Amino acid sequence: MSLGRSRQTRLYVRGLGGEKPRVPTDFARLERAAHEKMTPRGYAYVAGGAGLETTMRANRAAFERYTIVPRVLRGLDRRDSSVTLFGRTLPSPLLLAPIGVLEAAHSEADLAVAKASAATGVPFVFSSQASSPMEACAKVMKDAPRWFQLYWSTDDDVTRSFVKRAEACGCEAIVLTLDTTLLGWRPRDLNLGSLPFLRGQGIAQYLSDPVFRARLDREDASPSESPPRSPALALVARDLVVKGRQFDLDLKKMRAAVARFVGTYSRPDLSWDDVSRLREMTRLPILLKGVLHGDDAREAVGRGVNGLIVSNHGGRQIDGEVAALDALPDVVEAAGAAPVLFDSGVRSGADVFKALALGARAVLLGRPYVYGLALAGADGVRDVIENVLAELDLTMGLAGCGSLADVNRAMVRSSSS
Length: 417
Prior knowledge:
Strand content: 5-15%
Number of domains: 2
GO molecular function: FMN binding; monooxygenase activity
Number of helices: 17
InterPro entries: Aldolase_TIM, Alpha-hydoxy_acid_DH_FMN, FMN-dep_DH, FMN_HAD, FMN_hydac_DH_AS, LMO_FMN
CATH architecture of the largest domain: Alpha-Beta Barrel
Keywords: Flavoprotein, FMN, Monooxygenase, Oxidoreductase
Binding site for FMN: 98-100, 127, 149, 177, 289, 311, 343-347, 366-367
Active site: 313
């Protein structure tokens, strides 16, 4: 039985006994259920976008403009959705996108996602802004595929340390994110006055990094240990104490760590020359995430970059930005033989199909798996992955595609053309 039919059958059989899915199978219900489970600050961080959130809506509108044009009577019973990326054959063209502060959704955070990734064979891209150190996630995953997403700090030594650690814990590629050299204007977070990093959340890679920690030994970002003057600050101090215990850091060191992170988090002056420097730091394949223009794709390939990820950060950075799906065909053409991956706005297996048809070699899933995490931890992430892959399999079969090679530009049509 095919993947899609197997998943369908399991859910229907359970339904005979009155059991409904613990994780809704459609995105709208999934998001609503996660909203009810998460804290207001946590949900705002995950769900929110930049400005008026027009880019988020544009991402979805782009998917809706493309329609699938099936072929029939192809005699298909099973589909092959495997794909080879950088020498590794993967069971599907799906990866789990790097998302920071996963503790906003569930206490097990990245570790739960790592377990689901290992169970399904879907690669997990570790985030620089993780809630669990990359080494801990790698241990959970054993030989399962993982990549590392890099934010380039203003401290080059920390950046080099992150890359070395990623190599040491078995990451198979480095994903340099380009669209977050500054934090976008995010009203949902701003209206709550909520930046999770100030509470010590989402900085586990830094708190566990030997170079970053060595800097703390030479700094004192907290000149006074006097008690906080307000209940809100007392809660923040409590959060820092709890987080510090996980990394053997006292309150003073945690305050210093937060201050240092905020001061060095990202490089607004990141340039193409830095991409060339990264090429010298590692032998791992390098992908650039956040490429939306053909000229940037050509420049990247010319500098030895191994792959690209078309993304607008899920609409979280620039309000009114081009929809990622609309940018995909031009980047694919400009990239030549270099593999182009895609994220932003993906909500279903049918969405994955459309992105593949427009030239993506693989697709990264974001918010949906975070909502699954919020609802049921590792099991919830696994449910979301299996639902997306089941729908992809059924969509391929119903559209007459026996393999990913059949999912091409002829399979979709734009309503605007």
